[in-house]
Amino acid sequence: MFSRCHFLRRECVPLLLLLAVPAAYCGEPGEHESREGDEIVAAGQFYHTGTKVVLWMDPGGYDAYRVERRFAPIAQSSWDDTRPHIAFPKTPNRYRMRDDKLTPAQLERVRGGGWDLPTLEETVDQFVLHYDVEGASRGCFETLQDKVDLSVHFMLDLDGTIYQTLDLKEKALHATISNSRSIGVEIANIGSYTNQLGNERFALWYKKDASGRVTITIPAKFGPHPERTPHFTGHPARREPVVGEVHGIQRRQYDYTPQQYEALAKLTATICTIFPKINCDYPREANGKLMTHKLPPDALRSYGGVLGHYHIQTDKEDPGPALQWDYIIDEARRLMKLPSARNVAGETVVAPVKLIVDD
């Protein structure tokens, strides 16, 4: 039997041993091998996360390898039918090859898809967190696949479902100068704002009941129950919008859901375990606090770890001021059996950071 483990460890055998010797194969020809439903894919191999994952090859998944528009009428969705009608996408594929750090020999070896995990491990050193501004993963994929020349490896929906759209060997187009070295996740959230537009969007998406509890109300354009969990009702972790600085500007944002936080911590732990160059921590100021602005160019070039889109670009604000960074990093490190990152920053840690959730 294949080795099974909910959480990837270096000593665990991957679920798919694509390069195994014949003696390592087991099972009869045509025998069905089922997945557990929590696996992500890196260089053709499956790794467990301990949380719900829907792959591009699964029913109901989002497949960024396709060249047609996913949500256009089928008779108008092909690449040939798309080009006369919209400015984007400009090319059939919304992703590229990770080629920035490859030697000519490596490039020739992997250009047909022949990535191995060691080569990928040497190439990838950043995990970039975004909010999708669409508010639901269905809308996020519609924008990426049908309207623009962009892509992302993961989408994290309101109910905590993770969608993987591409093998991690691919260069998704989500973070400009960091694309070749990074993995990206778009977290369903309508974003952070400084103006009246934010008030209008908040009023559309978030409704308070008599007790003051906030419910996420997904607009009708997404159809009934676009989330994977039947009849899911989402609530931001905190009742009131969170106010905080990004690039020195005060912004307001409703928090992510507890389900998203739990799934993101597990995904972060998995990514940081598979890719040893991704340090499980966020960019910090000299005093150990979260950096809320773009990394200086030299620091960005040398940075390997978890970071926000705003750490890469001055024109981006995601994942916004609401994200509870310390919970994500502390919980991910706990799953990895590592000490709190706040120890690394020189702080005395009495207990792990808990997720702030308003009842």
Quick tags:
single chain; 359 residues; alpha/beta; Lysozyme-like; six-stranded mixed β-sheet; two-stranded antiparallel sheet; 9 helices; 15% strand
Topology:
Blueprint: E1 39-42, E2 45-48, E3 53-55, H1 79-82, E4 95-97, H2 104-110, H3 117-123, E5 126-131, H4 137-147, E6 154-156, E7 162-164, E8 170-172, E9 182-187, H5 196-205, E10 206-208, E11 214-216, E12 242-246, E13 249-253, H6 258-274, H7 297-302, E14 305-308, H8 325-335, H9 341-344
Parallel strand pairs: 3-7, 5-9, 5-14, 6-9
Antiparallel strand pairs: 1-2, 4-8, 6-7, 10-11, 12-13
Helix pairs in contact: 6-8
Continuous helix count? 9
Radius of gyration: 21 Å
Task: Please give the order of strands in the largest beta sheet.
Answer: 3-7-6-9-5-14
Shape: globular
**Overall helicity:** 10-25%
Summarize the structure.
With 359 residues, the protein is of the alpha/beta class. Helices cover 21% and strands 15% of the residues.
What does this structure look like?
The chain has one domain: Peptidoglycan recognition protein-like (Lysozyme-like, 3-Layer(aba) Sandwich). It is globular, with a radius of gyration of 21 Å. It has 359 residues and is an alpha/beta fold. The N terminus is likely disordered. It has nine helices and 14 strands. Strands 3-7-6-9-5-14 form a six-stranded mixed β-sheet, sandwiched between helices.
